[in-house]
Amino acid sequence: MIGAERPETRVEVILGVDTHLEFHVAVAVDHLGRRLGESSVPTTTKGYERLLCWAEGFGPVRCAGVEGRTVSSPTI
Question: CATH number of the domain that 29 lies in?
Fold first, then answer.
């Protein structure tokens, strides 16, 4: 339909985190699997806060998958 307005699509963020001893690498994708960005943060409380704020900048975080959690970072 010409001139019809499209409803605003709400992006839901899916976060994947690869844990390491001194830093974590995260990738955010949308609900369609499109890559939104990548971030690396230190394994500190401030780093975890920064990671969450970064991911929420793309939209609400729907879920997260964490690789290697029990080995490298039991706190994330």
Answer: 3.30.420.40
Neighbours of 38 (CB within 10 A): 11
Does 59 map to a domain? yes
Q: pLDDT (tens digit, 0 to 9) for every residue of the chain, 76 residues total?
A: 465 555 567 789 999 999 999 999 999 999 999 999 999 999 999 999 999 999 999 999 999 999 975 555 556 6
**pTM (predicted TM-score):** 0.76
For residue 37, being part of any structural domain is answered with: yes
